[in-house]
């Protein structure tokens, strides 16, 4: 049975650490690979990325597999969360072996951050190593194939997509070949997910399955957003992050192609995208449980499905988000503005 989430890729687990109130509005999300790791790659398109260990994922370089990926709030400060994940993995003796002693490992933990500084009211309230440890422990404690909490949790806690609240979203599909492709997204874009003419979500317009908001509701939403903009102008510093995963047997080069193509899924759901004040980063994971067909173009179906899953995940993130009205700013949810439309 599938749950339409990243965890439908067998062996992957997801854990969140979330903190709100008292100046906090941030968190960390960890994607934990099966023991022994998964083939990993990355593609960075935004002009202001905050990342760690992404060079290790270049297909030309040594490391072939990673045990975990960290997505975190806190901008560059929040990358400290990866240290907590590294410490936990070392205790489990999971990482790149660097000696005869099985305890001598170096966990390679790629990480990327979103900008949410000050959105809870305290600029210094940001994730640290303890957040990373809590999130990876939550992932390890979860059941295989468990549903993934969405909305304002983990790295999506303080996320915003343009003028509305963002968050975490996830989606998956099973191809006719039996291969699973899935995505988990932290939707936190400088651009907007809403069509300004109708209020519909771009990602749903692309899918061709949308109930347009009533004109009266759309006009009320535009007025509400204009009032908020007149009162506050938060810095347009954002970043959308994604992990796209499959149980197919991919090389690092093929995984890198998957990460690159998956950015198309962001571009369908957010406009404009990949700006200088975004740090848009997509990681790809391949667990290698299912072989590809014997011809080079067999990868195409996985590439297309990865981008589709990212679009659906962004729509889910925006729909699952809850409004925030606090000392750090006001971000109404899509549900507040448009109801169930």
Write a concise synopsis of the structure shown.
The chain has 341 residues and is an alpha+beta fold. The protein has helices at residues 81-91, 129-141, 202-207, 215-231, 252-269, 299-320, 334-338; strands at residues 13-21, 24-32, 38-44, 51-52, 65-66, 68-72, 96-97, 105-106, 111-113, 160-161, 164-165, 167-174, 180-187, 241-248, 281-290, 324-326, 329-331. The chain starts with 12 loop residues before the first strand and ends with a helix.
Describe the structure.
It is a single chain. Helix 1 (81-91) packs across helix 2 (129-141) and helix 5 (252-269) packs across helix 6. This protein has helices at residues 81-91, 129-141, 202-207, 215-231, 252-269, 299-320, 334-338; strands spanning 13-21, 24-32, 38-44, 51-52, 65-66, 68-72, 96-97, 105-106, 111-113, 160-161, 164-165, 167-174, 180-187, 241-248, 281-290, 324-326, 329-331. Helices cover 27% and strands 25% of the residues.
